[in-house]
Amino acid sequence: VSRIVTRIGKLKALTGALAEALSGVIWIFILMLVVTYGFAIVALMVFVPKESDVEACLAGLACSLKESDDCDAECIFGIMQDRWGNIRTSFSTLFFNVVLGDGISDVIGDTKLASDINVVYLFVILYLIMCTFLLMEAITGYIVDIISGAAYDQQQLDDRPFAAVARVRVVEWFESLQEHRSSKSGSSKSNY
């Protein structure tokens, strides 16, 4: 496979561009983790009911929790603690259940018991828009930009006469040889 990639100029340019784009994609994923962390903090503050609210509900006072036959205030508090109780659980709920879509309807259904449904939908939709933009648009745009630049460079090289291309290849080979020798001499000096 490596012989095929190195012999065909367009494949070599494409694999080189993808390798170059990898570092930028990693930074985009780090940005996505930071966004998820921020949303996890907001979810922790907004969706987890305070224990005083639960006690008020149990005492029969005014209550913001939407109790049902299946679940009372303590049950809702437990569900919210399981989904949004700390940063780690909020983060995993957002990343695994919301972004990946695994159980997003359960998350919305459980969360609307403790918060206004409009707030829940607004929160989830904003988070999905941010993550979709980062995952789809930013990564795709970054990779396409790198690949189109590499393809343009390869096209410029293909348009040159044979002697000019040979000269460029010899210069590239000579520079890689010098880098190899300098790295080898640096490692051999450290052995003494």
Order of helices and strands: HHHHHHHH
Please provide the count of β strands: 0
- The value of Rg in angstroms is 28 Å
* Class from secondary-structure proportions: mainly alpha
- Total number of helical segments? 8
Uncertain segments are none
Mean pLDDT: 79
Report the span from N to C terminus.
Answer: 38 Å
| Helical content class | over 70%
Q: DSSP strand (E) fraction?
A: under 5%
Give the CA-based shape.
elongated
**Could you describe the largest sheet, including whether it forms a barrel?**
none
Relevant terms:
single chain; 192 residues; mainly alpha; 8 helices
Walk me through the structure.
The chain is built from 8 helices and no strands. Helix 2 (9-47) packs across helix 5 (87-99), helix 2 runs antiparallel to helix 7 (117-159) and helix 4 (73-84) packs across helix 5 (87-99). The chain is 83% helix and 0% strand. With 192 residues, it is mostly helical. The two termini are 38 Å apart. The mean pLDDT is 79. It has helices spanning 2-7, 9-47, 51-58, 73-84, 87-99, 104-111, 117-159, 162-191. The radius of gyration is 28 Å and the shape is elongated. 17% of the residues are buried.
Brief digest:
83% of the residues lie in helices and 0% in strands. It is mainly α.
Write the SSE topology.
Blueprint: H1 2-7, H2 9-47, H3 51-58, H4 73-84, H5 87-99, H6 104-111, H7 117-159, H8 162-191
Helix pairs in contact: 2-5, 2-7, 4-5
